[in-house]
């Protein structure tokens, strides 16, 4: 474990400038590479009814980034990081090495000020460092993915690190439940016999970070078998919303799962329920909608004919003469206020979408059965590639969003205020390329401790988990 404070002189990173109301509101510069994402829409919409409904109040950001003498993570002056865990090191449990490809993550309150971190490992069949196979916690011995769990004491020191679930595949994102567990999602639909797997994949699994033995490695089959990305749970009804990040046409669907035992606590989702897909009347492809504020009432939910996709992937199945609504790159999903928000990170007409965009954020209000397009990102001349669109996001206790960048060039965690101002909070300095062609691993899994004093974030490659503390405002 290491700890570094940022106290030196600023780098070349300029202080972010306020943008207009609808253009260049998301802007950061990294040396000679400029990456910009213009968006239209009311950013404050994303914070309605949440605990993060305030603003920083003293201008955007915490100042320029300071070079890290250890070459790991640049932060603003006054901020510190600890390396909690790195791939290839020994797990404290003695079960084997820390797996690779750190991805989605969540933090849960433990006893006496402790924190439980649950961390995904998006390993495919050829993952560099697989999740160790553990008796009672392994679904498919040939699966290389899974989750690990860290317990930190009240002072942020790692007390334990162990396998939480093993034998799964491509554990990308997921989401927390109201009863304090993590739903980890397999972003694949490989069947037994593919890539050496002995069981079908493409499921959601429940993980208890405090006691993984309570949840084991049981697929929640009624929640569907498809290329899962993320989930969000309605804390009033217990309905689980799910996104599908399908890579080829027809693109993914937006789902809801109606549990037989809603809000029943750990293990209750195993009782099953109904899986349904969203149909927006008259809209076969969400990318065709480009105007922010566009609203659709009377949203329909259609039962999925075969949730297990025994013969046919769900998105190919027959949903009747009216069809079903698709969208490219459905990724992030979270609950805010009385609505669920979900993200389409980009759409490309050249790949089969109805139109181009560099990101949409949609809000579904279940009380009104109303779907609204809240934010549209780009395209804009400042955007280098569609892949520069934001990836993992979380609400910050001090107000605003924290956004993990996923694209080419230098990789950052950006903060976005409710006024649309953008600032750099962290920059990854770990070069996984060469001196001639440098490459930096993306950030993922950004989340905050229950008391809001520590931000946890992963670097995907080389797999590294950081804890960041500093003078957070608010």
Automatic annotation (TrEMBL):
<dbReference type="Pfam" id="PF05787">
    <property type="entry name" value="PhoX"/>
</dbReference>
<feature type="region of interest" description="Disordered">
    <location>
        <begin position="1"/>
        <end position="22"/>
    </location>
</feature>
<dbReference type="InterPro" id="IPR011042">
    <property type="entry name" value="6-blade_b-propeller_TolB-like"/>
</dbReference>
<dbReference type="InterPro" id="IPR008557">
    <property type="entry name" value="PhoX"/>
</dbReference>
<protein>
    <submittedName>
        <fullName>PhoX family protein</fullName>
    </submittedName>
</protein>
<dbReference type="InterPro" id="IPR006311">
    <property type="entry name" value="TAT_signal"/>
</dbReference>
<feature type="compositionally biased region" description="Polar residues">
    <location>
        <begin position="1"/>
        <end position="10"/>
    </location>
</feature>
């Amino acid at each position: 474990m290491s700890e570094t404070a940022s106290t030196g002189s600023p780098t070349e990173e300029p202080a972010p400038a306020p943008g207009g109301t609808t253009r260049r509101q998301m802007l950061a510069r990294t040396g000679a590479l400029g990456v910009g994402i213009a968006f239209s829409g009311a950013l404050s919409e994303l914070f309605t009814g949440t605990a993060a409904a305030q603003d920083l109040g003293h201008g955007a950001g915490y100042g320029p980034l300071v070079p890290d003498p250890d070459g790991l993570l640049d932060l603003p002056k006054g901020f510190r990081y600890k390396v909690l865990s790195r791939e290839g090191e020994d797990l404290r449990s003695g079960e084997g090495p820390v797996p690779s490809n750190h991805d989605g993550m969540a933090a849960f309150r433990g006893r006496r000020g402790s924190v439980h971190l649950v961390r995904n490992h998006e390993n495919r069949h050829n993952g560099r460092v697989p999740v160790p196979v553990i008796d009672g916690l392994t679904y498919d011995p040939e699966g290389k993915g899974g989750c690990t769990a860290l317990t930190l004491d009240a002072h942020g020191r790692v007390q334990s690190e162990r396998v939480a679930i093993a034998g799964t595949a491509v554990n990308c994102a997921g989401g927390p439940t109201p009863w304090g567990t993590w739903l980890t999602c397999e972003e694949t639909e490989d069947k037994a016999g593919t890539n050496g797997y002995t069981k079908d994949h493409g499921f959601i699994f429940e993980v208890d970070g405090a006691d993984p033995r309570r949840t084991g490695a049981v697929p929640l089959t009624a929640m569907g078998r498809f290329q899962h990305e993320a989930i969000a749970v309605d804390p009033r009804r217990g309905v689980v919303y799910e996104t599908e990040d399908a890579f080829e046409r027809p693109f993914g669907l937006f789902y809801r799962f109606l549990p037989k035992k809603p809000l029943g606590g750990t293990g209750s989702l195993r009782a099953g329920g109904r899986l349904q897909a969203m149909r927006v009347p008259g809209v076969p492809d969400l990318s065709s909608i480009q105007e922010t504020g566009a609203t659709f009432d009377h949203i329909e939910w259609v039962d999925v004919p075969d949730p297990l996709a025994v013969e046919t992937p769900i998105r190919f199945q027959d949903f009747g003469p009216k069809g079903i609504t698709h969208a490219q790159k459905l990724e992030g999903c979270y609950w805010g206020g009385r609505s669920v928000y979900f993200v389409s990170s980009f759409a490309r007409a050249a790949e089969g979408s109805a139109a181009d965009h560099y990101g949409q954020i949609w809000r579904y209000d279940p009380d009104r059965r109303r779907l609204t397009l809240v934010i549209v990102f780009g395209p804009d001349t400042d955007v280098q590639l569609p892949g520069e669109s934001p990836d993992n996001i979380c609400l910050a206790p001090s107000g605003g969003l924290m956004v993990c960048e996923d694209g080419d060039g230098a990789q950052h965690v950006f903060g976005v205020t409710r006024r649309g101002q953008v600032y750099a909070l962290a920059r990854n300095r770990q070069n996984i390329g060469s001196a001639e062609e440098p490459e930096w691993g993306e950030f993922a899994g950004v989340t905050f401790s229950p008391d809001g004093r520590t931000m946890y974030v992963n670097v995907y490659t080389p797999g590294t988990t950081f804890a960041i503390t500093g003078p957070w405002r608010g």
